[in-house]
Amino acid sequence: MEFFPSSLDNLIDCFARLPGIGRKTAQRLAFFVLRLPKEEAAAFANAILEARESVRYCNICQNLTDGDICSVCASRKRDGSVICVVADPKDVAAIERARDFNGLYHVLHGVISPMNRVGPDDIKVKELLARVNRGGIAEVIMATNPDTEGEATAMYISRLLKPLGVKVTRLAYGIPVGSNLEYADEATLFRALEGRREM
Predict the structure, then answer these.
(1) Which fold has domain 6-54?
(2) Exposed (0-12), middle (13-18) or buried (19+): which is 170, by Cβ within 10 Å?
(3) 78-170: CATH number
(4) So where are the chain's domains?
């Protein structure tokens, strides 16, 4: 038995395809959109279409931009000798929020994951190697997640970069600020001890 008109069901299905959105949340979002004034609904739909049409990869770092190069690569205030390699554009935003990193980025758009049939040719590794080969890079910071795929990706790229004469570093891991040692797992404690520094 159909509860909703087919166009509403279609809208719910579209929202449900978004990551992290279940059927109930999709239904709430669809009803919210239906209650919007027509102009706001049109603006919402146009924002989706405009973003889909205009957002592309930066010619240098592969981050998202609506121009040829992103604002980070265009900035003359950034240290062009340091590249922070991340898996996803959301990671750039996370690091930028900390306001401590002043170098450039390289976005891989994924990590190596044989289980998901993602190999080195499926992510932006060649583009990174080309940047480093052009010269002027002193350090590459591997900032992929500390999970199996992130570690494998970092190790793979590190092996490719070492012969090019650049310093390759990895983000330190350890105990999160505000947490208790008793709740830390063994791997986190091991990393925290391994990455300790003098005070």
Answers:
(1) Helicase, Ruva Protein; domain 3 (1.10.8)
(2) middle
(3) 3.40.1360.10
(4) 6-54, 78-170
**How would you write the pLDDT of the chain (199 residues) with one tens digit per residue?**
467 888 999 999 999 999 999 999 999 999 999 999 999 999 999 999 999 999 999 999 999 999 999 999 999 999 999 999 999 999 999 999 988 899 999 999 999 998 899 999 999 999 999 999 999 999 999 999 988 899 999 999 999 999 999 999 998 777 777 777 677 777 777 777 777 766 6
Total H helices, total E strands in the chain: 8, 6
Which secondary-structure segment (H or E) carries 129? helix 125-133
